[in-house]
Each structure stands twice: as structure tokens, then as C-alpha cells.
Write a structure and sequence with these properties.
2 copies of one chain form a homodimer.
Chain A (H helix, E strand, L loop, with lengths): L33 E7 L4 H11 L7 H4 L2 E6 L2 E2 L7 E2 L4 H10 L21 H7 L3 E9 L3 H4 L13 H6 L24 H6 L5 E5 L1 H4 L11 H7 L2 E4 L2 H5 L6 E5 L9 E3 L9 E3 L2 E3 L3 E2 L1 E3 L9 H12 L5 E7 L1 H7 L3 H24 L3 E7 L6 E3 L15 E6 L5 E6 L15 E6 L9 E3 H12 L11
Parallel strand pairs in A: 1-14, 1-15, 2-20, 5-6, 5-14, 6-8, 7-8, 12-17
Antiparallel strand pairs in A: 2-19, 3-4, 9-13, 10-11, 15-19, 16-18, 17-18
């Protein structure tokens, strides 16, 4: 008999049909260590300050701000062509690989080493081998770089689906390697979607249906979803199905064709734009507020997905759960400040729920971090030199906050019409739980792997791959 | 009998003529609490990561990175016209006032409240009233916003000198208030330089001679320097005089007409520049390294000034010492990455010396922080979209590091030809010493005042001014 997903006793919701084994009272709970890693993609200090100003005002505090311990995380990236040389701005693939596997690699790589293309061993694989529960929750496609790095091993983040392996082979010159070596027919493990379908991860929730509703490599009738089902995955496609889910077995929940829709957008879909100059005068853009994104209506929230994962993983056993708010990054790429703020709100609400869980389960270590920093900068809403008609280059937005002031937010890493680049500053780490107070004030991203291993009592891989 | 400044026993240099009272062996030292606040002006996480990459490489650690405790500091700024409404990007005047006095005020204000123009009470004034030592060390003019906020009270940061009070009255529309109310002839306290000259701060070191070698207000023959001398200040003008200084009395050391020259510059004086586009192609600027700035030759280092201040303040008594590396900010304003890196190097070397002092004087609390964030961003040295000829808008530099890689650094807060704006992200706080481990992971800038008061055992002002 299972319990419904929307119904964990520990999550303050009525629990129908809970087994006592999986939802025992606090006093009798096992102390099996539990590990929850929450990643705000691109959530650097600018994004946090911007979101705080909008969500709770300049005198308010985010839940993030209340976490008791804080560190700063240096990202590290190697050049694919010469892995002895660093690059100073990472992508989500190499940073997630650093967190998941403790290995520094090159931009675009998923669970593989720079140059030498050896598979790394992820915390999820080590946890599963130890019999622990494992879960991945994201608002992106589950095949996107951050979640993929916790479960898959491919040359290149774009190798998401069987079709991508052969038709979308790397057209992005930023990523030096390609997918061909990873084809099953070439002795590889197949696309990221196929590797997820073949995996032992207990629960995988996010977007990306289109990568699973394709024929698998070498198959004439079976899709990747079919392979997942054969491997024991129950397939979930709607928030209603998620809410009705019973505990047990493996779950693959996919709620959007690709990236899940975001919760907020600028009023009237406003975003940052280039500042017009007319007769030498800078015409600053109109200020706008944020509004709900209608496309979000059919999405489960990040918090509800994370809650469902916690219920599936249960209260008794050890587990490792990675939860990602992916579109803080994606909306910053697209110069959409309200989108970013809404996705940071989703993360903050998830952190609140997870902290409640961790208080009830003191054997839980919660780490909240970002994978890399992003383009958006909080700048004056009118330049100090506005009288001289100075204005932001690049793209600029003026966002009206709920306390009646205006934030200036610029996006100026490149002048393309399509999207911004990442930036390379250290990112924050917030921590709650056993050992949190012992985390040094400054760490490297690979140390997050060690912190997770240590908390779970897992031995490090005996032959860690080196670049 | 005094001891020479370059000769503190505790600073590992031979001490000639030390009095046993001021340089007793460790075992007999008093536990009088000592407070050292180090401010990197504009030193946000981008500036720190950029400097680390250059100074110690991607596998190295700055001294800053080794401080045991870390917090994040929210800056707060009010609108002068309506102090109930926040602004989201501060300046160095209001942020230094927050740290010095625990009061949130408007941009440009020095030790006065937004709108109501009431004088605040600074940690230096409270410490002096308690009989503690006081010191201010900066690489800017000592009359510049950050140091001024610890000692002076004026409407406006530009009121630096008697001449500025009447001839340079606010032409900068970013700062709403003006100097006239602060004229002594109008019942005010006079310019910042005159307030420093009349102060009880034990040691003041930095730049700004030109603000002191002016006739004081209402005087026909006496300069501000003359007034300082009459108030007991010994005037020091060269590194040699600083090195020969004996302990005792008050010291005013001014080593440059205005801001002190910085230690480094780009090779051949290179700085960030606009990316040229020729026939639709982006022509990225040539990468450059850093080199010593010849103008720095006649300057004392920040570390040597801080060391001199520590010797003057002695080992026995309580003191509060503010040390600022000012030109991390100023060089970022001017789009000079090597200048920023060199001034962060000066700060890091000073932190190292101060930590040595604090280890020998465990009654010392060391706080290192920034006042606000800045424009410079670490971005890809070639855009992910470089194949599409995307390049940084604004001003862009490619800095070649000592480990053979290249950092992209952009400055894109406004398109003026003169200088960048600040940015508004939370800034880091690093801490070492008694109580450091109890500092919350997230604080506000005004909390720094409380931390200093608490460490020194001083009571908060009974009638704190409110906006």
C-alpha cells in the first residue's frame, strides 16, 4: 500500500495510507543520512539581491538569507584542447560534473573528463550502489546539462536524445567534443535520455518529453519512454498524475516538451531592451512590474515536484536528491528579469519546504548553491551620469518593485540579438544540517562532491578519473 | 622615547626604543579589545575572482580566501527626496556611513541622515570618547567618502575642502544635498578636511594634500594643515618620514595630492576598450598583462601604512582602525582591470599582515568587507556566440594571466566615455577573531557598526538618529 505524493506526514499534509515504515514518528526514525542538494542555475549574488528586492523588499529576508551557514564556491573549468590550461567562465555541464563527481572538466562535458573523455562516477551512482535512494528534480528538461551530469556520461551536453546524437551533432563551437563516440552502435552509452531511461535513479522529475518520445537508437518501434517503462519507470505526465502517485518503484515525470514554463514574466511580456538614443538623448525604457506567466498554469511547481520526490524517497533510508531551479539561468540568458525573479522565488519556496523537512529529519544535510554566475547586473535605474545621457549598453530593464522603487537591471555580456553569456564569479553556498558549520568559508566546486560523500558515509571512488 | 614606525616588535621587525608599556611580551599584554575593519572599495565577488585568477591562478588561494568566517552583507540606501523609499544601488558615502554609524542614509551623504540632515555618531567618535585609540588608513584622499564617513558630518561627499565648499558646490546631480549648510559661517562644521584637522583621530594616513594645503574657511594665512598642526597633528608627507616616525601624539600623513597612485596598470597602460566591428566582424581587443605603475614608486604601500598605524596605536590599549583599499573601485570606474587587481593585491597583503597581528593579539576582531559592488564582470574572453560575431557591448578587456590563459572582463553599466556606475549586489564579509563564528551568514551593512561596538564593549548611541 502506498501513500499519495501530495501527502507526506512530514510535509504537514494529511497522509493517506502511509506505511508506518516509511513515515514513522520522529522518535523512531532511523538516522540514515539524507542529502539534499539544491542548485539555482546561474544564481549568483546579483540574482539573489535582485530577487530579494522584488520579492520581500529592501527590509525583507528570503528564506535563503536565513540559512545558518554560508560559504563561497570557486568554479573551475579546463580547456578541452589543453586540459592543463584553465578557462575562467564555466558552463552548467562542467560545473554540474564538478559537483556530481568531484572532477574538473571542460565546458559542455557531461560526466566525462576533459580531453581524455573518461567517464566520471557520480554521487548518484555511488549512492545507488550503496542501496541508497536517488532523485533528480529540475525545471529544465531532465536531459539538460545540470541534471544530466548527475546520471549520464557523454562528450557533449547537446547529445540529449537519439535524434540529437545524429542530427544535431555539435553545431555549437563552444563545445569542442561531439556525440558520435557515445552512440551505442559505437560502443557508447547512448544519448542522455537513453541513459536516464536505463538508470537506477528512483525518481526523475522535470521537462523534456520530446527527448523521450523518440525511437531509441537502433529501435524500429520502441521509444526511449518505452525503454524507461521496461526498466521499471512509471511514466507521469501531468501535475494531477504527480499528485495521485503512490509510493514505490521508479518514477519518470515529464511535464513539458523541453524546459518547463516559468512562473513569472514581465507585465505584458516585457523584457530588457536596448536603450534608444534620439538626437543624442538617452530614452530610458519604461519601468515594468512582474505578472504570472499564463503558460505556467499547467506546470507543477518546483516545490511540489521536490515534495513528491521526498515522499517517494521516504523517511527511513538514506538518499541523495538534487533539485534544480534551472531557469534563473535561462531567463537571464534571455534578458527577462521577471522570469529570473519568479524562478528564484520557486527555489526559495522549495528551500523553505526542504528546511521544514530537514528540521523534522535532523539527519539531513541541505546544501543550496549555484553552478555559475550569470549576466544580469543590478545597476542604477538612472545612471549617475544620466544628465550626460549616459545609459546602459547592451540590454537594460527598469523593474518597478512592490515597495514603489525601481531597479535597473542590465544584460551586457555580448551584443547578440539572441542571448547573454555566463559570467565567472564565485557563487554562494548555503548550508543547513549536520556538519554545515564545519564547511570552510571558501571552497571549490569539487568540494561539494566530497561534502555529499562525507555526509552519506560513502567512500570516494578508488580510481578517480583525472583529466 | 618613541619607537620607529617601521619597527613594531609584533610585526616581526626590530623595535628600537620601544616602551615596555606599549610593546610588552605576549604573556603580559592586556586583553583590551581591538577592532580592525578593512574595506575593499567596490570589492565584490567578481573583483575577488578576477584578482585570484591573476594573482595566484585558478588553483591558488588569496589570503582573503583563508579567513575562517564568511557572511554576506546587504547594502541599503534611501532616496534623499523621500527617505521612506529605497534605492537599490549605493555609493561609498552612504555605505561607509552605514558601517561607521549604523544608520541607513542617502547616496552622497557623509555621517548625516537622509532628508533630515542630522549628524550620526560614528564608531570612531564613540571609541575616542571611551579613551580608545582611533585610526584611518586609505589609498584615496583621506577626505574621500569612505574615510570621511568615519570622522566627518556633511551633506555631501564633494564638500572635501574649504574651496570645494564654495566653488565646487554640487554639480553632480546624483547627490541631492549641498555644502552650504556645512560652512562654519553658517553654523556648520566646515569641510571634511577641516573636520579631520579638528578631530581626535590618532592617526590618519592616505592621500589628499591638496585639500589641506588651502586656506581654512575664514582664515587669511592659516591653511587646514596649519589648523591640524595646532590641533596636535604631526604632518607626514613621504614614505621616508612615515618610516622614521616615532610613537606618540597624533599623525596626519598625506602622500599624494588626491587619490594615491595605484600599484599596477595594464601593460603599456592598456585598459578596457570598445570592441570594434569591421564589416560586421567583431575585432576582439588584444590580450594584455599587468605591469607596475611607474607613478606608484613614491607611494607607501597600503600594508606599510596599516603597519605604521598599528605601531602608533600600540599593543596595550583598545582601538578601532579602518583600513581602505580605495582604488579597487576607482580603477573599475575607469575600466582598468590591472589597476583593480593591483589594489586588491594591496588589500590582500594588508590582510595577511593584519592577520599576523591578530594572531599575536587574540583580542583583535578583524572584519574585511566591501562597501558596494562594482561594474567589472568576469565574462568569457570570447563569447559563446563569437562565431556569430557577438562581443561585449560597453568596454571590454582581455587580460592574460600568469598561467597562460585569458580572462574576459567587461565594463558595461553605462555608455559614457568617462566612467562606470556601481552595482547593487550584496558584498562579502570575511571575519577573524573573537565572536567571528557567531556572525550570521547574512547581515545588513548597518550590522557591521553593531559588531564593532559589541567587540569593543561600547554602548550604542542613546539617541540614534533616524531618517
Amino acid at each position: 500500500m502506498g501513500k499519495t505524493v501530495a501527502a507526506g506526514l512530514l510535509l504537514s499534509i494529511a497522509c493517506h495510507g502511509c506505511t508506518t515504515e516509511r513515515a514513522a514518528p520522529v522518535s523512531s526514525r532511523s538516522a540514515a543520512p539524507k542529502m539534499i542538494l539544491i542548485i539555482g542555475d546561474g544564481m549568483d549574488q546579483h540574482q539573489i539581491t535582485i530577487a530579494r528586492n522584488y520579492l520581500v523588499g529592501y527590509e525583507g529576508r528570503l528564506t535563503l538569507d536565513t540559512l545558518p551557514e554560508r560559504s563561497s564556491v570557486q568554479t573551475q573549468t579546463l580547456a578541452e584542447e589543453d586540459p592543463r590550461v584553465p578557462e575562467y567562465v564555466p558552463d552548467s555541464a562542467n560545473t554540474a560534473t564538478s559537483m556530481a563527481s568531484g572532477v574538473v572538466t571542460s565546458a559542455g562535458r557531461i560526466g566525462t573528463t576533459a580531453g581524455t573523455d573518461r567517464d566520471t562516477l557520480s554521487i548518484m551512482e555511488l549512492a545507488a550502489a550503496a542501496g541508497f535512494g536517488t532523485g533528480i528534480v529540475t525545471t529544465s528538461s531532465v536531459t539538460d546539462a545540470t541534471p544530466a551530469s548527475f546520471v549520464a556520461h557523454v562528450n557533449q551536453r547537446l547529445c540529449e536524445s537519439p535524434r540529437a546524437m545524429v542530427t544535431s551533432n555539435p553545431t555549437n563551437p563552444a563545445f569542442a567534443s561531439d556525440c558520435s563516440k557515445d552512440l551505442k552502435s559505437n560502443g557508447g552509452k547512448g544519448s542522455i535520455a537513453e541513459q536516464i531511461a536505463a538508470s537506477s535513479i528512483d525518481i526523475v522529475l522535470g521537462g523534456g518529453v520530446r527527448n523521450f518520445d523518440q525511437l531509441a537508437e537502433g529501435e524500429t518501434t520502441r521509444t526511449v519512454s518505452d525503454l524507461a517503462a521496461e526498466n521499471g519507470y512509471r511514466l507521469v505526465r501531468t501535475p494531477a498524475e504527480l499528485a495521485a502517485l503512490t509510493v514505490g518503484g521508479k518514477v519518470l515525470g515529464l511535464f513539458a516538451p523541453g524546459t518547463m514554463s516559468v512562473q513569472w514574466r514581465g507585465a505584458g511580456d516585457a523584457r530588457a531592451e536596448e536603450v534608444a538614443h534620439v538626437d543624442g538623448r538617452a530614452i530610458y525604457p519604461e519601468a515594468f512590474g512582474c505578472e504570472p506567466n499564463p503558460d505556467f498554469a499547467m506546470m507543477p511547481t518546483l516545490e511540489s515536484m521536490a515534495r513528491a520526490a521526498l515522499v517517494q524517497l521516504g523517511d527511513g533510508d538514506s538518499f541523495v536528491l538534487m533539485i534544480e531551479s534551472a531557469s534563473i539561468d535561462k531567463q537571464s540568458h534571455l534578458r527577462r528579469p521577471c522570469g529570473q525573479i519568479g524562478e528564484l522565488k520557486q527555489l526559495d519556496e522549495t528551500v523553505k519546504m526542504v528546511l521544514d523537512y530537514a528540521r523534522a529529519h535532523p539527519e539531513t544535510l541541505v546544501l543550496v548553491t549555484a553552478d555559475h554566475s550569470q549576466a544580469a547586473q543590478l545597476i542604477p535605474e538612472t545612471s549617475v551620469l544620466a544628465a550626460l545621457n549616459a545609459a546602459s549598453p547592451g540590454h537594460f530593464a527598469r523593474v518597478r518593485t512592490l515597495e514603489g522603487a525601481v531597479m535597473g537591471i542590465n544584460y551586457a555580456t555580448n551584443d547578440s540579438s539572441s542571448q547573454e553569456d555566463h559570467s565567472g564569479a564565485d557563487v554562494p553556498l548555503f548550508a543547513y544540517g549536520p556538519g554545515a558549520e564545519e564547511i570552510p568559508a571558501q571552497i571549490r566546486q569539487t568540494d561539494i562532491f566530497g561534502l555529499m560523500l562525507g555526509h552519506l558515509g560513502l567512500a570516494p571512488p578508488t580510481s578517480a578519473p583525472t583529466p
